[in-house]
Amino acid sequence: MSSVSITIRRDGIARITLDRPPLNVLDVEMLRRLNDALRECDATSIRVVVLSSALPRAFSAGVEVRDHLAGRLDAMLSEVRENARLLLTMKPVTIAAIHGSTLGGGAEIALLCDFVVAGDDTVLGFPEINLGAFPPVAAAWLPEICGASRSMRLLLGESMTAAEAERAGLVTEVVPAVSLAKTVDRNASELAARSGVALRALTAATRGQRAPAMLQRLDAAIATYRATVGPSRDAEEGISAFLEKRMPAWSHR
Question: What is the DSSP string of 34-99?
Answer without folding.
Answer: HHHHHHHH-STT--EEEEEESSSSEEE--B-GGGGSHHHHHHHHHHHHHHHHHHHH-SSEEEEEE-
